[in-house]
Amino acid sequence: NNKKNKFDAILFDLGLSSNQLNDPERGFSFMFDGPLDMGMGINSRKVSDIINNYSELELANIIYNFGEERLSRKIAKNIVAARKVKSIKSTLELVGLIKKSFPILQLNKSKINPATKTFQALRIYLNDELNELSKALNKSINLLKPKGKLIIVSFQSLEDRIVKDFLNHNSGKRWRSSRHYPELADEGSITLNLITKKPIRPSEREIINNPRSRSAKLRVGEKIN
């Protein structure tokens, strides 16, 4: 509660950094061959533990719930079939199994890599990212000074729904759009003014200069006195 320890602004820049993506040893990228790791912080588990030990149903649910991948069952089936022959150890092995799950026409037409959603799902599940985001957002309000800004940049829909629900709820709008966000109580104090009614998106020029910004959404709330 010491005002000296509070901030004028807090920025959440969600998702992976370029350094993480560009390091094959971290296992985050489907563009490089590396170990199936994806762990963050002190997490000792690795994605390889999930890929090689979880049941077909568990894998399908993870890929669907955290990656919103429609072909989750087919991908899970191919993973389980492959690991019966030998353990799946590398990112490119997993990419090959994911691509095998897609119809050729869909592979040719898709604008994104077919492994994108599955890699996202495994990373989010392994690191419990959505719960960690919810906890961090809830703690952030008490760390802001009056009129302090809470700025959040998200890069995929699951994160953005949690951010949107959090800002709406704390500015007096009491509905819930994310199944991953804890149930929101109808009562509670209003702690934020909503600065961005709709998310701010990158300009065409910014996307050209920084392609990884293409899916970014920026939302801002201001702490009430």
TrEMBL record:
Key word Transferase present: yes
Cross-referenced Pfam families: Methyltransf_5
Keyword line: Methyltransferase, S-adenosyl-L-methionine, Transferase
Keyword field contains tRNA processing: no
Molecular function GO labels: rRNA (cytosine-N4-)-methyltransferase activity
Biological processes per GO annotation: rRNA base methylation
Matching Gene3D superfamilies: Vaccinia Virus protein VP39
PANTHER family: 12S RRNA N4-METHYLCYTIDINE METHYLTRANSFERASE, S-ADENOSYL-METHYLTRANSFERASE MRAW
Family listed: Belongs to the methyltransferase superfamily. RsmH family.
NCBIfam families in the cross-refs: 16S rRNA (cytosine(1402)-N(4))-methyltransferase RsmH
Protein name (Swiss-Prot/TrEMBL): 16S rRNA (Cytosine(1402)-N(4))-methyltransferase
The species this protein was found in: marine metagenome
